[in-house]
Amino acid sequence: MAKRCDKHNDSSQMQKILQPDVTDRSGQEEKHKQGPEAKCDATDKADQASPCSSKPPCAGVERGREEKRDERVWKQREEATDSCCLLEDLRRLPPSRVTPERLSFGETHTVLVDVGLFNSGGGVQAQQGRDMWHSNFVKLPCSPSSWMNKTILKIHTSQVKRWEVISKALERLAKKKTVMVDNVEEAIMEYNPKYKGQWSFDALSSFVKCIPEAENYSPALLPKIAALASRLHEHVKKAIPLLQRGRTASITLSQVQISCLLANAFYCTFPHRNTSAPNAEYHSYPTINFNSLFGQWSVRKKEKLRAIMHYFKTVTDDNSKPRGLVTFERHCLKDTDTPKWRSCEETMPKLHVTSDGRIETEGTGMLQVDFACNLIGGGVLSSGLVQEEILFLMNPELIVSRLFTEKLGDNECLIIKGSQQFSCYSGFSDSFEWAGPHDDRLTRAKRECGRLHRQILAIDALRYRHRREQYSMLQVTRELNKAFCGFKAYGQSDPDIATGKWGCGAFNGDPQLKAVIQLMAAAVAKKGMAFFTFEDEMFKECLQQMYCLLAAQGITVGNLYGLLEDYCAIKQTADVELFQFIRSNLPKSLL
Ligand code: APR
Fold first, then answer.
1. What confidence score (pLDDT) does residue 19 get?
2. Pocket perturbation via mutation, ligand 1, pick of 366, 370, 371 by most ligand atoms within 8 A of CB
3. 132, exposed or middle or buried, with CB in 10 Å at 0-12, 13-18, 19+?
4. Which end of the chain, N or C, is less packed with Cβ atoms under 10 Å?
5. C-alpha of residue 423 to centroid of ligand 1, in Å
6. What is the Å distance from ligand 1's center to 481 Cα?
7. What pLDDT shows up at residue 589?
8. Cα–Cα dist 54/79, whole Å
9. Distance CA 356, CA 250 (A)
10. What is the 44 CA–ligand 1 centroid distance (Å)?
C-alpha cells in the first residue's frame, strides 16, 4: 500500500498563503474541473487544502494583503498545473524502422563486427582479431590459453585445452534430437569438474517436467543451444574488452554474437567466473554462467526459465533470429562535469506523472531507466525478480552486459542501445509471470541490420538498511550525481527520461526524495521526465502537486538543494515528509 502522502502542511502561516480560507461553509463546492488541469485538484474534500488545487480563494473571504498574495499564488498555480505536461510532449526516439546506421570504431569503442562490410551494406560478419587472455579482456572459453586438468581412467591426469573438452561435449549434445537435463548436467560437469556435487540442476529438471506440453520445447531446444554455443570461435573472433571501472568505453556486437555468448553462459563454459571470493580475479564482476539459475527450484525460477527458453527458441530459429546490433556504453562522470548543485540556476524540467503503465511500455522510445544493482543485472541469474531482473528477462540480451561490465562506481552508469524485447510479463516479484512472446514493433525486416530504437539506462541507487540513512547530503549528492551521469549522457536532442520510484523498493529509498533528486538531475541535464508511479495513485497526485508548486514558484535546482540541506538537518529529529517540508519552507522571496 503506497505510503500516505500527507498533503496538509502543518505550518499555519503556510496554510494562509497557499490555501483558500475554507471557513466559508456555503457548501457550494465548486464542481471540480474535468481534464488534466483538474488532476491537481481532483482531490476529495479532505484534501481541499491541497496546495495545488487551482480553485481561487472562496468568495466572501476578506481580502487582505495576504489574500492578494494568495490570488497571485493561485494564478501561478493555475499556470503551473498546466505545466504537468502530457506524455506526448516528451521526446522519444522515432519507433520507425531504422535505416542501417554508419558504424565506426575508436579508441574507446570496440566493434566486434566488420565495420567496412557493415557500412557498405554487406551485412553483419564477425570482425577478425586475436584472442587476448589478459586481465583487461573477457577470457573466452574458446581461447587457446584456456587449459584444464583431465583425469583419464582415474589414474592419469594431463593438461588439455579446455575448449576441446567443451566443444566435444556440446557437439555431442547438438547431435541429439532431444536432450534431457541429466545430459546437460553431465556435459557441464565435464569441463567444470571442480563443481561436481556443488551445482544443482533441480530447478531446470523441475522446469522441463512441469512446463505444459505445448510450451515444453526444451528437450528439442537444448541441442540447438549447444550447437549455437559450440560455434563461439566462429562468431566472436575479436577479443572483448572489459568495461572497467573509471573508464568511459563502449562495445558494439551483433545480436547473433550476443546469442552465442549467452548460449555459452547457459552451458556454463566461461572460465574463472564461478567464484566471487574477494581475492577472485572477477570478484568485481557479476556472475555470467547460468548454473545459479538451474538450482534451488521455486515458482520464480520456473517463470524465469520460461522467459530464458523463449529467448533461445527465438534466436536459434533462422526465421526469427535477430540480426541487428547492440551497443553497451559505460559512462563515467568527470569531476569537471559534476554540477555545483548549490548554485544551479535551472528551473523544473518538463514532467509527466502517471500511475498507469510502465517505463518499458508507455516509455517506449525514451531513455528507460533500469533500477539497477551496481553489479549489473542484480539477481537475474538467481532469485531476484523486481524491476531490473524483469527488464533483463524480457530483454535477455542485457544479460550479456554481466560478462564484461565491472561493478559501477558512484559516478558511473551503463547505457544499452538497441536491445530487443522478446517477451511480455504480468505481475511483479512473487506474482511475476512470463506472459508470452513480445512482437517488438521496432523489429526490423530480415535484410535490415540497423539498430532497434531502445535505449536503457542502468543507474544503481544506494541501498538503505534504515531509511534514515538517506537523509544526509553526502547520500543525496551521490544520488544526484548518479542520476545526472545517466540523464546527461546524450545531447539535448536525445530522448527524454522514463523513470519511476528508482531506489524505492528493494533499496528502501524515500519516493518523495528520489523524485525530487531525479527532477533536479533532469533539469540540469536539460531533459524532460516521465515518472511512472506504478499504480500508486496517491503518490502521483502528491508528486503532481509538488511539481506544480515548484514550477509555479520558479524554484531553481540550487533552491531545492538548499531546501534538501535544511530538510536533512531537521529530519534527524523531526518526522516530516519532504513535500510537506518544501511547501512550508519555500524561500519567501519567491512568494
Ligand atoms: N515501471 C515503473 N515502475 C516500476 C516498474 C516498471 N516496470 N517496476 C517496478 N516499479 C516500481 C515499483 O513500485 C518498485 O517498488 O519501482 C519500485 C522500485 O523497484 P525496485 O526494482 O525495487 O528498485 P530498487 O529499489 O532500485 O532496487 C534495486 O533491486 O532489482 C534489483 O538488481 C536490482 O539490486 C537492485 C535492486
1. 37
2. 371
3. middle
4. N
5. 18
6. 19
7. 61
8. 9
9. 34
10. 29
What one-character-per-residue DSSP string does 444-511 give? PPTT-----S-EEEEEEPPP-SSGGGG-SHHHHHHHHHHHHHHHTSS-TTS--EEEESTTSSTT---H
- Ligand 1 neighbours (beta carbon < 6 A): 358-360, 371-373, 378-379, 384, 386-389, 461, 500-507, 532, 534
Q: Which H helix or E strand runs over 261?
A: helix 255-266
Residue 212's pLDDT band (cuts 50, 70, 90): confident
Q: What is the pLDDT of residue 402?
A: 98
Query: Could you tell which of 361, 366, 387 is best to mutate to test the pocket of ligand 1, judged by most ligand atoms within 8 Å of the CB?
Result: 387
pLDDT at 279 over 80: yes
Protein residue with its CA nearest to atom 15 in ligand 1:
505
How much is the pLDDT for 78? 47
Give catalytic residues, as residue numbers: 370, 388-389
* 3-class state of residue 212 by DSSP: coil
Answer with the residue of higher pLDDT: 348 or 17.
348
Quote the ligand 1 centre to 372 CA distance (angstroms): 8
Helix (H, G, I), strand (E, B) or coil at 287: coil
Q: Which atom of ligand 1 is nearest to the CA of 380?
A: 32
More confident position, 34 or 384: 384
Residue 46: per-residue pLDDT: 33
Q: Which residues of 170-182 are buried (b: 16+ CB within 10 A; e: fewer)?
A: bebbbeeeebebe
Question: How many Cα neighbours within 13 Å face the side chain of 549?
Answer: 28
Cell of 386: 523486481
The pLDDT assigned to 586 comes to 87
* pTM (predicted TM-score): 0.86
The three cell numbers locating residue 281: 580475479
Total count of residues recorded for the chain: 591
Give the largest CA-CA distance in the chain: 101
**pLDDT mean over 536-557:** 96
Q: Beta strands of 59-137 (E only): which ranges?
A: 109-111
- Atom of ligand 1 at shortest range from CA of 385: 30
Among protein residues, the one with the nearest Cα to ligand 1's atom 7 is 358
Substitution candidate for ligand 1 out of 386, 425, 507, 532 with most atoms within 8 A of CB: 386
Instruction: pLDDT band for 33, please (50, 70, 90 cuts).
Output: very low
pLDDT digits (tens, 9 = 90+) for 164-205: 999 999 999 999 999 999 999 999 999 999 999 999 999 999
Which three cell numbers, joined as nine digits, stand for 326?
A: 547492440
Distance 391 CA to ligand 1 centre (A): 10
Which runs of E-coded beta strand occur in 33-169?
109-111, 147-152, 156-161
